[in-house]
Design a protein that fits this description.
The protein is of the alpha/beta class. It has a single domain, classed as Acetylglutamate kinase-like (Carbamate kinase, 3-Layer(aba) Sandwich), CATH 3.40.1160. The chain is 46% helix and 17% strand. It has helices spanning 25-34, 48-61, 65-85, 95-103, 113-119, 130-141, 161-166, 174-181, 196-201, and strands at 8-16, 41-45, 90-92, 108-110, 143-150, 184-189. Strands 3-4-2-1-5-6 form a six-stranded parallel β-sheet, with helices on both faces. Helix 1 (25-34) links the parallel strand 1 (8-16) and strand 2 (41-45).
Length: 203
Amino acid sequence: MPKDIRINTEAWVIKIGGSLCDSKYLVQWLNSISEYSSKKIIIVPGGGPFADQVRLADKKFDLGVYAHHMAVMAMQQYANVLASLCPAMALTHSAERTHQIWVESKVAIWEPYEMVRNQCTLDQTWDVTSDSLAVWLAGKLGINNLLLVKSSKQVLEETDLDSLTKSKCIDATLNKLVNANKINLNILHKSKVSDLQSLLNTH
C-alpha cells in the first residue's frame, strides 16, 4: 500500500446510505462532495434497493454467509449508480487505485467486493453492513475521519451510538469498530447537505 495514504488526518471516508437512492438529496450530496475533489475523499455506498432484494432472498432461502457476499455485491451495484450520477468521480476497487484517483484530484467511489472478499475478517452477517465496512475501509487506508449520511430522522435529535444501534439506525458492529480504530465519526441527516462544507473545512 502506498505509504502516503497511511494515517491521513485530512482524508475522509463518506458513506452514502442506500436509503438516499430515492431521495432528492442524493445528487445534491454527490455534487457537494465533488466540489472537494482536491481533498482525499472516498465514498462508501450503501446497499440501497439492491440490498433490500438480498434481504428478501435471505428470508426465503436462508442464505447464510452467501447473503453477506450478495449484500456486498449490492453495495457494488449502488457504487455504479453513484458513478453514473456523478461522472467527475471515479470507481476504485483497491488502495492503489484509490491513491491514483486522489493524485488526479478526484473523489473515489468504492467498489467493495474485491477488498472485502479477500482482505476483510469481520463477521459475515447482517451485523456487519456498509456502516461497519466504512469503518473497516477507513482503518485499511489509514483515514481518521468518517461521515455517515443517513435518512433516519433520529440522527437529527441524537448521535449516541448505543441508542442508534438499538434502533438499528446503525449496525451492531459499528460502535466497537469506531472505538477500536479511533475514528472521528460524524453523522449527518440527508437534509443537512449544507453542513458538509463546515465539517470538511474544520478537519
